[in-house]
Amino acid sequence: MSKQTTTPVSMTAEEFKTAGYHLIDRIAFLLDTIQERPVTTTKTADQLRSFLGTAPLPETGISADAIIKRATNLLFDHSLLNGHPKFLGYITSSATPIGALADLLGAAVNPNVGANILSPMATEIEQQTIRWLGEFIGVGPSYGGILVSGGNMANFTAFLAARTAKAPKSIKTEGIASSKPMTVYCSKATHAWIEKASFFFGIGTGGIRWIEQDEHHRIRIDLLEQAITRDLENGCNPFMVIGNAGDVSTGAVDDLRSISALCKTYDLWFHIDGAYGAPAAALPELKKVFEGIADADSIAIDPHKWLYSPLEAGCTLVKDPNTLIETYSTHPVYYNFNDTESRPHNYHEYGFQNSRGFRALKIWAALQQAGRKGYIQMIRQNIELSQLLFHLADKHSELEAVTQHLSITTLRYVPLLGLDTMDNRETYLNTLNEALLNVLQRSGEVFLSNAIVNGKYCLRGCIVNFRTSEKDIVEIVETIVHEGRKLHRKLMNHSAPVQLMNHRQ
């Protein structure tokens, strides 16, 4: 074996094994004891900076083993652990251990999955992964797509494909001004990515038509059609309707079948933001809820949400993959990526990035480890735990259960005493629950997020966590009530409600 050149970042096999074995041992211990740790750090930003230190960039190198040991201590002791069974905040899942190992393996090979010649096997694995994702949620074999960083990018990628497909061909050379005013339609619960996309990509936020929801938190189809016809009469170019498959606040799924029918009637691009909820389409008992998903022109789905992949992992699925090529493909003279004989699949032609990391491996590995049945079992269990949270809140005298869709429950703390004499009861409850959320998030015992539902400030539990159990849900309810009582007494005793309510008004 020839001797390798020694550089400041080289490691011998023994050095690599020493650092690696230590790291794997520590990670294994973390995963085995994660439920015994605080959900999040209780240290302030100043304290964290003091732990990290303010030393200048080292002039000479430090051993890899020492760096790994220090980094492990810093991260394990001072992070929010979204793999903790009592983390129900936002929509960040507990990550599969095999995903972490796959990321290490992928980084060791370090393929650039922008061009087939730079990533021959990684490209094939990404194609297979995307096909499996489509199969899992029940769309046809024609669907293709690309893996991206997350929900924003998955939706952006589809948005531009829709704009390209529905705008005049002159848009590529003359810009968005060559089109009539373009308009896009979505419910008022749609994620903020739509505002970014409309601003970034020339539609303007004034081109968004925000449609009211019905009593089940789904987009109102009658108002949607009225908005489309009104824009057509006013000389606009309606081009895209977004259906939510699990909206970000409550988890509600829009009437996808009816949206699809409208899009066909008016020749609009039908996009589904299923970044969170689309994996639940695999459950047989939810087939009717997701009816119409296979009619979508594009779908955003984030494996790092309900498929438990480590960050980052999003995906844009499109019914006709050629729409991505028409939108993103370029052929600069310095690329030598097109072998006319083998017709390679070059992912730089399907999205924003040229250089791309190997995101597929961690998803590909976990899909095989769990299989379709394993994922269905875990997703179903998350939904059942969310239903349990709603049920426990509904029967508790000091909690109000507000909504429950998929694996998201919203609720709020409502004290038994002190509300009857208040003129502004609802304002106080909003203030109390907002303060309660901050207390809970800082406590390290449980981590929830928030939602505003019909003007109510709610605590929001989103369960995309394969470690969460019934015991955790029961204890979370107890913690909410315990901390809610303490905070209510404190606010009432210090006459703080008036100050806080005036501040919010």
Produce the secondary structure layout:
Blueprint: H1 13-33, H2 45-52, H3 64-77, H4 97-109, H5 120-137, E1 144-148, H6 151-166, H7 171-174, E2 182-187, H8 193-200, E3 208-211, H9 221-233, E4 237-244, H10 256-266, E5 269-273, E6 298-301, H11 303-306, E7 314-318, H12 322-328, H13 360-395, E8 399-405, E9 408-413, H14 425-443, E10 449-453, E11 456-462, H15 470-493, H16 496-504
Parallel strand pairs: 2-3, 2-4, 4-5, 5-6
Antiparallel strand pairs: 1-7, 6-7, 8-9, 9-11, 10-11
Helix pairs in contact: 1-3, 4-13, 5-13, 6-12, 13-15, 14-15, 14-16
Give a description of the structure:
With 505 residues, the chain is α/β, with parallel strands linked by helices. It folds into 3 domains: 13-80; 111-357, Type I PLP-dependent aspartate aminotransferase-like (Major domain) (Aspartate Aminotransferase, domain 2, 3-Layer(aba) Sandwich), CATH 3.40.640; 373-504, Aspartate Aminotransferase, domain 1, CATH 3.90.1150. 45% of the residues lie in helices and 12% in strands. It is built from 16 helices and 11 strands. The strands form 2 sheets. It has a 7-stranded mixed sheet, sandwiched between helices. It has a 4-stranded antiparallel sheet with strand order 8-9-11-10, covered by helices on one side.
